[in-house]
Amino acid sequence: TLRDITERKRTEEAGRQHQAELAHVLRVATIEHMASGLAHELNQPLTAIANEVEACATYVREGKLEPPRLLALLEHAGAEALRAGEIVHHLREFVQRSPARIETTDLSKVVHNAIQWFVREMEQAQITVRLELASQELRVFADRIQIEQVIVNILQNAIDAIREATHDTGEIRIHTSRTDDGMGEVTISDTGTGFRAGAAERLYEPFFTTKPQGMGMGLAISRSIVELHQGRLSVAPSAAGAGTAVRLALPLEERVLRLTSAHSPPHKGGRHDG
Questions:
Q1: Tens digit of each residue's pLDDT (9 = 90 or more) over 104-120
Q2: CATH fourth-level superfamily of 102-259
């Protein structure tokens, strides 16, 4: 009945809103965990700006008014200011509470944005990242921030697993590709500790975690986000024999358009020549 349909839609909308709230909480917790690395990322352009401006002041005090040199210093300071602004904009965009915004986005670009959060942390942990991105864009319909959050969570798990392993250095391999069934896929493999036997079935359970300080919500929320996007998320031992491989797949733009067209009612009417 109409009442049943209306009630079902209300229930689905309430579920989506609840999911968005949980995702927002997880994003804030993730940023808190990465605070040190973010401070370093923001400090780099600010330090460069301070150095360039001080150099300009020194030239002026010493009477060395060389316009080309001063202009070069100021242009570099301006570029670093823009870089700092981009970092702050990305941070604000990532943590703000906002409704889902589904749009066409390149999956490989989302991967690249997610990696930027961990540059400093991976350098300190001596972790090498091997990027194998698809040569063509992988355009998907998605909420870009939510999918970036999923990839950030996967990367954070990979870094933590490598730190727990006994070897001094580690590697994260990120591969993006187009599947035969019209999905854009990201595979993130690490050389970390992996997971113990029997844990695989419980990885997506809320509050189940293999980390001493973990909340146990990351993969559960991530899987829900991916499924709301009509996608797939799976975790398995790495094919290399050590570590973990996580696969995230989302429908490509052409697949969504093709399915939408196939389910659209036939066009009636049209031009009649007489």
A1: 999 999 999 889 888 88
A2: Histidine kinase-like ATPase, C-terminal domain (3.30.565.10)
